[in-house]
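task queued by scheduler; priority normal; single chain, no ligands, no partner chains; default sampling; output format set to structure tokens
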Amino acid sequence: MTCWRRREVLGAIGVGLAAAACSSNKATPPCIVQDDAGLGRSQAYCLVEREHIRVPNIRTIGVGQAALFNIDDSTAVIIARDAAGAYAMSGICTHQCCLVSICSDAACTTIGTNPGECKATAVGSPAQAGAAMICPCHGSAFSIDGKVLTGPAVRALPHYALAFEGDDAIVDTSTVVAIDARV
């Protein structure tokens, strides 16, 4: 699999075009739109591919734990579990599409490292109250269920359909689900 960096893709499109297209898109969170070389096709929400992402060996994630898995630096998901079950959400900040980091302590003064490209973070235990994820680009903070705690982001991380096949999670980024949906 080839990993594409968001900044490489963004270099090929105009920031003005992206801002204009996003301001009229009410169906998705703030986004960057790529015009695919003027062919009239576009992808919304931070160039996240609408696909099924397989996250290996994650079924045994414990209550209060989370892991970040990314295909590249613009397509990432977080798998987490609370008392109600497992859930999946975007690992891409809704402000300006940066890869978020999972906090390593309750005050979120220490963030876990991003996984790099095409990797997963170690399963961690972010804060259950307060910030659990932070965007290292502009400082937006999110709770363990993806709700915005501090901006500049104003929208929660979208939650995606989740299923398990054996020990692997399958996240369907084309299907947004309610924030309280659990498996």
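post-processing summary
- The helical segments are 6-11, 15-23.
- Residues 142 and 179 are 13 Å apart (CA to CA).
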